[in-house]
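A reminder from the course coordinator: this example appears on the midterm review sheet, so study it carefully.

Given structure:
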């Protein structure tokens, strides 16, 4: 779901109307904001995401929760399995058995492949059997860290897509540039 495939906001009014029906204190201002923040989500996906969230929680879902659920539904409809650190570790174990330390592992999960690249294939393979739990824990932590990093990158790319922020930053003079959170 990206801003390139934005839908007609009036179509999403049905989905936002569901929020109003479920939470009568939902204001017009909130409705406008929710419409604006979900305009790139196709209406059928948005309706199903909101429907699921209404069924699961007694509280009004945030825009972030709606977007997260819509993204999960969209990916599930495409048949994409969500990345899973445990499944990634399983691939590592299989490849150790298949190729050994000196072979080239074939890892389908791109995040798991990046973790292996960073940790080192030979280092993973050379871990003594009684320390497998330690290396697995390190793998799982690094996997989670990379997933968060990739998610932040995707969100930033989506936010910067229209070029307005980049143009603004480029127009700043040297004296206005921020360094370490403080003005120069």
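Designed residues:
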């Amino acid at each position: 779901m990206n801003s390139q495939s934005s839908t007609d906001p009036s179509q999403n009014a049905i989905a936002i109307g569901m929020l109003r029906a479920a939470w009568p204190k939902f204001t017009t201002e909130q409705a406008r904001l929710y419409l604006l923040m979900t305009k790139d989500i196709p209406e059928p996906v948005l309706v199903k995401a909101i429907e699921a969230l209404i069924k699961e929680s007694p509280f009004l879902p945030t825009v972030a929760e709606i977007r997260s659920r819509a993204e999960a539904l969209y990916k599930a409809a495409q048949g994409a399995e969500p990345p899973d650190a445990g499944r990634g570790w399983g691939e590592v174990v299989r490849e150790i058995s298949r190729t050994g330390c000196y072979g080239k592992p074939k890892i389908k999960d791109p995040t798991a492949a990046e973790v292996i690249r960073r940790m080192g294939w030979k280092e993973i393979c050379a871990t003594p059997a009684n320390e497998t739990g330690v290396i697995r824990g390190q793998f799982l932590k690094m996997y989670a860290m990379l997933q968060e990093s990739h998610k932040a990158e995707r969100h930033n790319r989506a936010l910067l897509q229209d070029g307005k922020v980049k143009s603004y930053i480029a127009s700043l003079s040297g004296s206005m540039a921020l360094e370490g959170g403080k003005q120069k």
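The chain is about 65% helix and 0% strand. The first strand starts at residue 178 and ends at 179.
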